[in-house]
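Co-fold these.
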Amino acid sequence: MSTVRTLVRETPAINMGDGIIAVLRNDRVARWTSRLVLLALWQVAGLLSQRFPTPVETVEILVREFQTPFDRGEWSAANNELVQNLWISIQRTGIAVFLVILIGLPIGYLMGRWWRVQAYFTDLVTVLLAMPAYMWALLAVMWFGFGMRAPVFTAVVSAVPGLIVHVLQGSLAIPRDLRDMSDAFDVPGATRLRHLALPSMSGAIIAGIRLSIIAAWGCVVLVEWFGSNEGAGFRARDWYQSAANYNGLMAWGIVVLVVVIIFDRGIIERIDRAVHKWRGAVGDFGAAKVAVNDSTQEG
Amino acid sequence: MAVLKATKVIKEFPPPTKNQPTVRALDGLDFEISGQTFVTMVGPSGCGKSTFLNIVSGVETPTSGSISVRADDGSPARLGYVFQDPRLLPWRTVVDNLMYVHRDKTEDKRDHIARYLDMVGLQGFEQMYPAHLSGGMQQRVGIARAFSVEPDLLLMDEPFSHLDAITARALREELQSIWQQTKKTVLFVTHDVLEAVQLSDRIIIVAYGGKNYADIEIDLPYPRLQTDRSVASLQADILEVFNEMESKRQVLDPRLAIDSGAV
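Predicted complex below.
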């Protein structure tokens, strides 16, 4: 006689006794606990040192920056020291990152595809990687003076080699068997680039762009510190040198950090998730409920 | 007119290290395949079967000799290829994997592709990613992809060798049925004699070193099952040919008797 037994195993429900453990193991709780601990440490450090502003003092400075009209003009929600200087730095970084992608992506890809291109650019990329950003910053200010060109130039030359190295690694890792399959079916180059090369390199490209944005933002702020009369870096230096105000320096430091975090979490991570949606789809397969069909034969 | 004509094909690979001789994978392979036939190349591992398919598909070039692949009407042939592993794009759905090898990206082409997915029993799985599918289903996608280009010559490189015995057996039977429907010219490569007997109407035996050894016509009715007495009997005869080939090789080089047995 034959019987078929079907077992359905469900994820066990969390009861009240497991509540505290479940909360402690929760990912979101862990993240927020870490943030609150950092904030508390910052407050303690501010109270212990005269030269280290507390979170409250920092926020006060930012409010004051928001209330001060930009460049002695008329105040508005868009035209104040906080928003305008930040916007100028973001624009410079945006232009720099656009140029970094425009230069770094094709060079990195072609270096992975043709050894001759790799041979041509390897030394140049190594030299650019080894050159510290502050050297470029000093040279750029001497060459281009105050204005947009020096921060953008410094950001581009500092961030391009990192992106090239990432894209090169991605280009080298395009699966050989899928390339051979494309050869066998005579798939056109544009289709291969779009459906094979770019998706295959997407992890490396996104990681490279993520680092490029952070590097470019750092360079722009650095050049603005000593080679500009506007932007987040300039404003931080202004508080530090003109007013000897550590609170102002700290406040702009926090703004610089927050912008990086917003870019990274708000934009790059979302793009990463969207591009790699197929990995998530694979992970969802049969995750919550496991059905086990157990067929047994009985004499 | 022959769909495929191979003339004295030789393929040598550079030596793995400096002081070693070049490696000759194919040594004057020479045969023709006419349209609407299912031809299988059988030979021991390392005899150059896959290398030959790579040359036919254009992935490799021969060191000397020539291969011409033409459609029945003499125009350049369209090729389909089923590999040992499915070779699917993991970031594309089943239907998009098939679309990848087509230049025409219209809705009509999607309908055309759906017919081939239906043919291999994958209707309802079009929007799934390859990782959602079992190994056998992934290989079915590979088979549908190759048939969907409506090739003048379909190359199949040990397509069932990575599958478990039960799945491989089911797919062999499905392949017979698909081939009966489409009658595409197929060049199939395997080292499994039973598989060759079950599927093909001609078997080319390739010896070690990539040389022609025997050419056998098979005139058994389809469908052929592994359990058919006629299939088993022919398998035994062909294994005898392999034993004879192995004996001759050992006479030429007695050291080989130590480390290799007959098939």
